[in-house]
Amino acid sequence: MHTKHRYALPMGEVLHNVYRIQQVLGAGAFGITYLVEHINLHSPSVIKEYFPEFAIRQDGQVQPPNADHAELFNRGLSRFFQEAQTLNKLNHPNIVKVSDLFKENGTAYFVMPYMGSRTLLNWIESHSTPSVADLETVFLPILDGLHYIHERNLLHRDIKPANILLQEDNTPVLIDFGSARFVLDSASPMTRTLTPNFAPIEQYGHKSEQYTPALDIYSFAACLYQAITRSLPEAAPDRIPHDTQMKLADNAAYRQLYPVNWLAAIDKGLNVYANERFQAALSMKEAFVNPHTVSSPLPLYTTVMDAPETTQMPPQPHTTEYTPPPSQPKPTPKSKPEPKIKPTAQTKSSGSLKKLFGRVVMLGIFGAVGLGAYPFVKTWLSKPPVDKPYRSTVELTLGKRKVQYTGWLLNGVAEDNTGTAQLKFDDGTTCTVGMSNNKRHGTGTCVYPKGSVYEGAWKDDMKHGYGKYTPTKASPILTYEGGFVQGKFSGKGMMKYKNGAVFVGEFAKDNIKTNGKGEMTGMLGMNARCEGTFTSTYANCQFKQGNSVIKFKGEHKNGLWHGKGELITLDNNTQTDHYRGVFRNGDMVKVNKPAPEPSETDTPPETIEEVPADTPPPAEPPVQQNNKDNVNNLF
């Protein structure tokens, strides 16, 4: 929503004799929203003016630009007024309340209480890894609000973080029910207004009678998905026919942070098919509250997730108009009535003789062709069908490398969404994977010559989405499981080391993300991991030990404290111990209290050569791909 509009009313103008305009809060496709002050009570309110984007303001009056738009404008104005009357009857703490409604300046206005400008989107931006308690406080009341409006046969139809206000105590309030949006949907079935990434597939179609509460549940689940992953779910049309949306319950990193029933409930709410989602808001709430409500199998890997490389929020999609292609009725071919012939012994025998004679003739033809024409006959017989998938073994080129491919093809191009296509490279690499347009796409497993293995999602012939990587025996890393972006560790993931240590947190470009949040073992034998911010070599974290809080600042390697560092013990927020020195594999080997405080620019002592914990040995790095020549670097 934009905060500027060339037809917006000026500051200071008074509406309905009592509401003085203070500023423009936003402008969308169907209206302008103002912050106003009651001139007698001096209390703030919000007023929304019906102003579809095609309208103009002339001599102070809002009107359609020409006669062609008059009917649509008036129909929208009428429905805007009716929907405001409906919202005025609603009374729920999580649903915006319409307190006044009036017509003026050739259009309509409705008044709502001013609850500040902090939205759920602002909250998501400030909570990179929200706790379950945070999610319960902010999201579960929204389901109560949805249950309330669904019971009254109302749908919101544009739930997204920007349309959820948060009050000072984090109570969520659903706003912007999109009154004008309803009239354009119903009056002109060729036009749909929706927000990509939050709208389910049924909103892209013609049949509004297919809208059910599952529509709002999909959008709600998309908000939760963004809150947890800090990335947008894939747009619904891109998930058909091959659904590449990652399942949160399959991701080991998210399972470390959130209960499986929460993740499985979000996955179910985001199902691309409406009948596979929760059909009621309270059913979804029950799935969050009761761990046994939703069962979710946990396969080893799933499909593509565009994991964020940074903690910056992706650009938010705007509500847009979508014009679905017209559905064409299939013509019914006219067939001539066939004469009814009663079969007789003679006709049956005649048909059998004809079939037998045909087979004999064909055999005679092939026999007469002779051995000299055999190559031609073989080619004719083996010629692949046109525009029909067929299974074969052929040689393909992936990037700059030749590979033997066994799987489904369409017009000579590898198209295999079963995930069972076989690839064999000259260097010994083998893959069982999905294919699209001669590129690895979907899910699959590749085993490399030196023993490393990747199991997970592919996109455009790159590891992309959720996956599990097992390096060579020489690597200090046991496994990495989490997000990949263009072949590199990115997003949230879990790295296990062969020394028993673990790091769970944010990754970017094959390393622990600079200043990313996470938790690390630090010292073997501790009951709790050290939580805080990390770089590839530096940690600033803390953990609890009994009633004490232990803080660590310093260098790390392979999931353990290694290099310069310091430990600070706090009891009841009072410092009781302070050690500074040198650590090796999680143990302090040298105490040096006068030493200067460590910083991220410090280098380890010469006797302790620092190597980034998440960098495998030079012999075979986990991923060294780039966009220019991806395939050559994979193997």
Automatic annotation (TrEMBL):
E.C. designation(s): 2.7.11.1
UniProt domain Protein kinase: residue ranges: 19-289
Swiss-Prot/TrEMBL keywords: ATP-binding, Kinase, Nucleotide-binding, Repeat, Transferase
Region (Disordered), start-end ranges: 308-349, 587-635
Keyword ATP-binding carried by entry: yes
Record-listed ATP binding positions: K48
GO MF terms, alphabetically ordered: ATP binding; protein serine/threonine kinase activity
InterPro entries: Kinase-like_dom_sf (IPR011009), MORN (IPR003409), NEK_Ser/Thr_kinase (IPR050660), Prot_kinase_dom (IPR000719), Protein_kinase_ATP_BS (IPR017441), Ser/Thr_kinase_AS (IPR008271)
Residue ranges with Polar residues bias: 309-322, 624-635
Bias type Pro residues, positions: 323-334
Annotated family: Belongs to the protein kinase superfamily. NEK Ser/Thr protein kinase family. NIMA subfamily.
Protein name: non-specific serine/threonine protein kinase
Organism: Alysiella crassa
Organism classification: Bacteria, Pseudomonadati, Pseudomonadota, Betaproteobacteria, Neisseriales
